[in-house]
């Protein structure tokens, strides 16, 4: 099992966290997804994770990844 953490903008409330979790569960290879509004991060675990696919999905739902 692999783990990937991505810094993300606009995680402001528990609803944001739930939206991210629900949407990333459907992405290929993702087994679990969690988001932290305090740290502004998204962490996913799974097999054969593709960072570019996860970042694209986050952008589609309004949570753009950052590079810091």
TrEMBL record:
<feature type="domain" description="HMA">
    <location>
        <begin position="2"/>
        <end position="66"/>
    </location>
</feature>
<protein>
    <submittedName>
        <fullName>Heavy-metal-associated domain-containing protein</fullName>
    </submittedName>
</protein>
<dbReference type="GO" id="GO:0046872">
    <property type="term" value="F:metal ion binding"/>
</dbReference>
<dbReference type="InterPro" id="IPR036163">
    <property type="entry name" value="HMA_dom_sf"/>
</dbReference>
<dbReference type="InterPro" id="IPR006121">
    <property type="entry name" value="HMA_dom"/>
</dbReference>
<dbReference type="Pfam" id="PF00403">
    <property type="entry name" value="HMA"/>
</dbReference>
């Amino acid at each position: 099992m692999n783990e990937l953490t991505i810094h993300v903008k606009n995680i402001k409330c528990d609803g944001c966290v739930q939206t991210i979790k629900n949407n990333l569960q459907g992405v290929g290879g993702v087994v679990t997804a969690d988001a932290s509004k305090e740290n502004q991060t998204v962490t996913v675990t799974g097999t054969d994770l593709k960072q570019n696919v996860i970042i694209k999905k986050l952008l589609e739902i309004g949570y753009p990844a950052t590079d810091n």
